[in-house]
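REQUEST ID: PR-0412
SUBMITTED BY: lab tech R.K.
PRIORITY: routine
TASK: structure prediction, single protein chain
INPUT:
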Amino acid sequence: MDGLEILIFLFLLILGYFSGTYFEKRHYKSIRERERKTLHVPMVTFGAKQSLPEAQDAQLFVGSVVISVDYFKMISATLRNLVGGRVMVYESLLDRGRREALLRMKEEAMAWGANQIMNVRLETAAIGGRSGNNSGPGSVEVIAYGTGIR
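STATUS: complete
OUTPUT:
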């Protein structure tokens, strides 16, 4: 029975690696294409002493996304946590989450007719994972929000 469990573990590990790599590359390709389409709408953050641009209308826009890890990244992160240090497999997860949330916010603002998004903020929250009494795979939620003006 132990041999079967090891085979199942290795199968899931290999499947997680290849499917996770495929879907991550596909998602990055989609992100790059959509970023090119939204380059003309700038996102800026103003300080308290800066003058704001003239606007006829303003509205709050929000983009959010939840992205989960694949089986390979979950095992890799668990092994990395045993020895300590940076868990690099989660860096692409956070990068994809931030970029996707910003894109969703920009696309919503563009549909409204915004020509600029001001005071953009990002909030990140860990969902699930192996901390506390949660035992599922780790996920991250990223929320981007800003004020669109036209």
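NOTES: Strands lie at 43-44, 58-68, 116-128, 138-149.
REVIEWED BY: pending
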